[in-house]
Amino acid sequence: MAGADASGAGEWNRFAEGSVERRMLSALSDRVGTALRPRQLMVADGVRVEVEGMDAAGTIVVQLVANQGAYKPAFRNKVLADMLKVIWLRQVFADVARAALVVTTVTAQALGGWVSTAAADLGVEVWVLDGDDVVPLPHQS
Length: 141
Hints:
By secondary structure, the protein is of the alpha/beta class. It has three helices and six strands; from the N terminus they run H-E-E-E-H-E-H-E-E. It has helices at 20-32, 74-92, 114-121; strands spanning 37-43, 47-54, 60-65, 98-103, 124-130, 133-136. Strand 5 and strand 6 form a beta hairpin.
C-alpha cells in the first residue's frame, strides 16, 4: 500500500526544521490542503523507495529539487530523474492520483523547452518555491 511508511523514521525524516525541503513540503501541503511528509515505500519484491513527500492516504506523491546557488546543467538530470520517479510511482500504486515536483527558482531553469511540456503532458504538477509559498510553474497554470 502506498500509504504505509516502512522507514520507522520521524515525521520529517531527514528534513531539518527551517530547511528548504521542509519549507517546500509545508508550502505544498498548504496548497493541496493535506499534510505531505517523507516516506519509504515498499514495492514489488521488497524494494524500498523513498519519496520526499506523500499524504497519509497515499494519493499524492512529491519529489523535491531544492538545489540553490548557480544553475548547473546537472540539475536537469535531477529534475528528469524525479519526474520519472513520480510517474512510475503513480503507475505502481493504484491510490496515487497526483504526481508533483517542487523546484527552487534556480532549478526551475531545468524545465525549459520540452521538459515542462513533457511534465504537463504526463500529468506531473510542477510547483516553484516562492519564499514560503509555492506557485505553479508558469506554463502549467
